[in-house]
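Why should sequence recovery work at all? Because a backbone constrains its sequence more than one might expect. Tight turns favour small or flexible residues, buried strands favour hydrophobic ones, and helices have their own preferences. The token representation captures these environments compactly. In the example below, the structure is given first.
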């Protein structure tokens, strides 16, 4: 069961294997394209860092997207230096990071409130003598 565009694409193929190969190249690309995608995703993974105004949840979504894309291309990329991360489930890691983020935010909010309490506003005042004004008028 194929839609007409797909049927037209594979109707000239003699075997199911040829049809499969043609559809695979159409949607996944050639081996060179796959290798290039894998290399690009591995580089993204290796250079991955949290953006300046990003929260933990947003960062985690980006990391998950990279990992899922690599897995869909049959490439499981692991960081050999971070063996301990493999023993910690991703959900627990996310929870720990979100808790840490909230703690830091609360600490920053407390510091901001303390700074607001410490601010003192002073106004500069001056007095004008009425005799000076009279002499200017004359």
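From this structural description, the recovered sequence reads:
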């Amino acid at each position: 069961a194929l839609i007409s565009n797909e049927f037209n694409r594979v109707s000239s193929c003699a075997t199911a294997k040829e049809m499969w190969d043609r559809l695979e190249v159409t949607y996944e690309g050639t081996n060179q394209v796959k290798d290039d995608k894998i290399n690009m995703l591995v580089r993204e993974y290796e250079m991955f860092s949290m953006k300046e105004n990003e929260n933990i949840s947003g960062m985690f979504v980006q990391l998950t997207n990279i990992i899922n894309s690599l897995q869909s291309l049959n490439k499981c990329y692991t960081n050999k230096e971070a063996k301990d991360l493999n023993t910690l489930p991703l959900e627990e890691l996310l929870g720990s990071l979100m808790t840490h983020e909230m703690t830091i935010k609360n600490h920053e909010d407390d510091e901001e409130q303390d700074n607001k309490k410490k601010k003192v506003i002073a106004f500069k005042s001056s007095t004008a003598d009425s005799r000076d004004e009279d002499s200017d008028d004359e």
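A few observations help interpret the result. Residues 90-118 form the longest helix (29 residues).
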